[in-house]
Design a protein that fits this description.
heterodimer, A: about 600 residues, alpha+beta, Nucleotidyltransferase, domain 5, Actin, Chain A, domain 4, Substrate Binding Domain Of DNAk, Chain A, domain 1, 4 domains, six-stranded mixed sheet, five-stranded mixed sheet, 15 helices, about 40% helix, about 25% strand, globular, B: about 240 residues, mainly alpha, Helix Hairpins, 2 domains, about 0% strand, binds adenosine-5'-diphosphate, binds magnesium ion
Chain lengths: ~600, ~240
């Protein structure tokens, strides 16, 4: 079976991992770190993704999309409250958000697909084979529409999504594999945009989720926003400047706020510095960890409610939890660790890299699906109750939250009027009493043969598959015939729309590839320049002055080629530079061998 | 939406699944896999949950055995292990897993287990309307009034505070009643199991059996009623 990779498609950062002889590893190439910022920018060279796109956040805020995961499976009305914070333009078509980038608009799955494609390319370059299958993670508390949107993103990126798995459970797979843990564990996952808590029982290779809960709108982004709001308010008060009209400065404030937050995880006091627009000087301010914690503590507190609910649903007390595992970048905050420790009464584990553990777990699940790992099995649950609208606008629950998946429920339908030919069914997800307070997933019309009232008997099966995604089937109990059901998602792309987006993505793939070649060549050139400059500094004295001059000329030729958009020119100048620096490399190697005889290792020198 | 009625399929008539392998058409003797071609077989709709887990049809069961059998069957049926198989096998795996999960959820919880067994032995309990315990009738009527009054009251008033205190007391009482009923159920469970173990076919055994079933039914129905009220109460005063 072809290789399946595991992908953590995060709000802030995304990663791809694979299974290397029983050990999951994240994929990082020579010059790139494993984490790809989940940022997509439209530049003059086309669409770019990741670190290079992140640079455009302040340069080109209207054309740089970040945190797109917040919009997956959502309508514009769902995110009305936070629109003001995003510098890019959002519109809506058919219940699905569109993001305007230049002339074109893209759905969130399309933007996510660009990130996925970047990861796919990296995996292909690293593994030297074509990758067409993946396991993709989602927050455990994602509803059906959000899961479906993630699956659509995979398809648009040319990936067959073999499984959608929950981030905290993925983390538990990686954790369990490494630690050989048995017992009850709680996984607390606080990332950039979402929060999840999952409680699992680990026994003899079975990872049974007992309960999960969360908040798909709580994460590091929200901490950043609080700090940014504070800074903006102070700048307004002190300098009379309203930065909210400068979207580039808004982004700079947001990024500085995040930097400040991250530094305060290590330090107790830092200074925030911001350049003001139009040469109006600079704003500086001291920020202490106490102040940060004062701002953020209500949000951290908010994460504890879902923890208590998950405990309650699993019928456990905090003391029943044997181990607490922290996942997600925001769990590096001391305040978060303290609060979690206080709730569960034990020190949480954070030995595994919280940035990588989800992707690693996805790779483990991928290996299970491809038949490589056979001793581990994940039994996950559905995070939200599933039901249908009944008379009076009340939701009648069919599958309760925290039911192990796959799960199914059957319901019999009949007619109330003679000759009635259809029954309308409205599927909902959520915990509230009234239909209108829950998430509308889909509507469909059941076809019924025209018969006297009450005679038709149509059995509808609602099945939540191992991805947590709903499938609906109907069967006429009188004739035994099954009927296919056209479900119209309330907040999602139709099959036809996804088809079209897949075609589009092929059309634009050519442009993307050339843009990518430029970016890669630039990155490689940058790395070569850095290493050559270091060699010159360390070993310049080992070669003649002419040789040094030759190297410098080749260096500046490469530097100017790097500014251009011709990847072949960049590669050409790189080859020139490598040629010019050959003598230096050899001289340094000789020198290091000599040093080696004096007891030093080559690896220390080069 | 209109016209939706509850599904009350009749599980009383039990028979062991004994059919042909969907794949190689052989008379297969295996439990869940064809003995000849080793393909997974759809679990029969008529298979009761106890038989599915290889457990005796009793109200007190060994939950350790239940769990380990659940894990074992999960390993046999879970879709994760059918990714490379045919569409037919994938769909059987999905159906079997969903059934297994329902079976496990039902048998794991003593009350649901009892309701299920009653269902098997004497028809659905879900069809009987839940009813208040006769001796609590007055008390519950009064409680409903207090609840209504509390809902309409100004929550900051002293009157509301008094009502809240009263509701708290009611809650404690009802919860105690609930525990009471559960203890009585537990006794009935043991009596039932003992009777089944003896397996007597006498007139007297049959009579006792009917009596226990009737008692269990009543208490289960009372318990559900009280539980719903307690939930409502907790939600209101929270
Ligand atoms: N040392 C740190 N202290 C506080 N927050 C951090 C730290 N490192 C990363 N973060 C925050 O973690 C979040 C990203 O976490 P990550 O798990 O990568 O998110 P996601 O899964 O949503 O992509 C960001 O909000 C980032 O600011
Ligand atoms: Mg994450």
């Amino acid at each position: 079976m072809a290789r399946i990779v595991g992908i953590d498609l995060g709000t802030t950062n995304s990663l791809v991992a694979y299974m290397d002889k029983g050990t999951p590893r994240v994929i990082s190439t020579r010059h790139e770190r494993a984490m790809v910022p989940s940022v997509v920018a439209l530049t003059d060279n086309g669409l770019i993704v990741g670190d290079p796109a992140k640079e455009h956040l302040t340069r080109n805020p209207e054309r740089t999309v970040y945190s797109v995961k917040r919009f997956m499976g959502k309508s514009l009305a769902d995110v009305q409250g936070e629109l003001a914070y995003f510098p890019y333009t959002l519109t809506e078509k058919g219940g699905v958000i569109r993001i305007q980038l230049g002339e074109k608009s893209y759905s969130p799955p399309q933007i996510s697909a660009m990130i996925l494609k970047e990861l796919k390319l990296r995996a292909e370059a690293f593994l030297g084979e074509s990758i067409t299958k993946a396991v993709i993670t989602v927050p455990a508390y994602f509803n059906d529409s959000q899961r479906q949107a993630t699956k659509d993103a995979g398809m648009i990126a040319g990936l067959e999504v073999l499984r959608i798995i929950n981030e905290p459970t993925a983390a538990s797979l990686a954790y369990g594999l490494q630690k050989k843990t048995q017992g009850t564990i709680a996984v607390y996952d606080l990332g950039g945009g979402t929060f999840d808590i999952s409680i699992l029982k680990l026994k003899n290779g079975i990872f049974e989720v007992l309960a999960t809960n969360g908040d798909t709108h709580l994460g590091g982004d929200d901490f950043d926003q609080l700090i940014a709001d504070l800074l903006l308010k102070e700048i307004r008060a002190q300098q009379g400047l309203d930065l909210s009209t400068h979207s580039d400065h808004m982004q700079a404030v947001r990024l500085e706020a995040e930097r400040a937050k991250i530094r305060l995880s290590e330090e107790l006091k830092i200074t925030v510095t911001l350049d003001l627009p139009d040469g109006q000087g600079r704003f500086t301010r001291e920020l202490t960890r106490d102040q940060l914690e004062g701002l953020c503590s209500p949000l951290v507190e908010r994460s504890l409610g879902p923890c208590r609910l998950a405990l309650k649903d699993s019928g456990l007390n905090p003391t029943d939890i044997d181990e607490v595992v922290l996942v997600g970048g925001s769990t590096r905050m001391p305040l978060v660790r303290q609060r979690v420790q206080a709730l569960f009464g034990k020190q949480p584990h954070c030995e595994l890299n919280p940035d990588e553990v989800v992707a690693l777990g996805a790779a483990v699940q991928a290996d299970i699906l491809s038949g490589g790992t056979t001793d581990m099995l994940l039994l996950d649950v559905t995070p939200l109750s599933l039901g249908i609208e009944t008379m009076g606008g009340v939701m009648s629950s069919l599958i309760r939250r925290n039911t192990t998946i796959p799960a199914s429920a059957k319901e019999m339908f009949t007619t109330y009027v003679d000759g009635q030919t259809g029954v309308d069914i409205h599927i909902l997800q959520g915990e509230r009493e009234l239909a209108k307070d829950n998430r509308s997933l889909a509507r469909f019309r059941l076809k019924v043969p025209p018969l006297p009232a009450g005679v038709p008997r149509i059995e509808v099966t609602f099945l939540i598959d191992a991805n947590g995604i709903l499938n609906v089937m109907a069967k006429d109990m009188r004739t035994g015939e099954t009927q296919s059901i056209e479900v119209k998602p309330s907040y999602g792309l139709s099959d036809q729309e996804v088809e079209r987006m897949i075609e589009d993505s092929f059309k634009f793939a050519a442009d993307d590839v050339s843009a990518r070649k430029v970016i890669e060549a630039r990155l490689d050139a940058g790395a070569l320049i850095t290493t050559t400059e270091k060699s010159l500094a360390d070993g310049g004295h080992l070669v003649s002055a002419e040789e040094v001059a030759k190297i410098r000329t080749a260096l500046s030729a490469l530097a100017s080629a790097k500014e251009g958009t011709d990847p072949r020119a960049i590669r050409g100048r790189m080859a020139d530079l490598e040629q010019a620096a050959k003598g230096l490399t050899v001289a340094m190697l000789d020198d290091s061998l000599k040093q080696g005889l004096q007891g030093k290792k080559i690896s220390d020198v080069t | 939406m209109n016209g939706h009625i509850h599904n009350t399929d009749d599980r009383r008539e039990l028979q062991m699944a004994r059919s042909m392998c969907w794949h190689c058409q052989s008379e297969m003797a295996g439990e869940y896999f064809c003995d000849r071609c080793v393909k997974v077989q759809p679990v029969s709709k008529d298979l009761d949950y106890f038989t599915c887990f290889g457990l005796p049809r009793r109200l007190v069961i060994d939950t350790q055995v239940l769990e380990s059998k659940f894990y074992e069957l999960s390993r046999a049926f879970h879709p994760d292990f059918y990714q490379n198989k045919s569409d037919a096998e994938q769909s059987i795996s999905l159906g079997n897993s969903a059934m297994l999960n329902t079976a496990y959820r039902t048998l794991r919880d003593p009350i649901q287990r009892a309701e299920y067994l009653l269902d098997l032995e004497a028809g659905s309990v879900k069809d009987i309307r839940t009813s208040p315990p006769a001796d609590l009738f007055e008390e519950i009527l009064e409680l409903q009034e207090t609840l209504d009054e509390f809902r309409e009251s100004d929550r900051t008033s002293e009157h509301a505070a008094r009502l809240r205190t009263k509701l708290h007391t009611d809650r404690t009482n009802l919860e105690e009643r609930q525990r009471d009923m559960e203890a009585r159920l537990q006794q009935l469970f043991s009596r039932w199991d003992a009777l089944q173990d003896r397996g007597e076919a006498t007139e007297q055994a049959r009579a006792e059996r009917t009596l226990i079933l009737k008692d269990m039914r009543n208490i289960l129905s009372n318990r559900t009623y009280v539980k719903n009220i307690v939930n409502d109460l907790v939600a209101t005063i929270a």
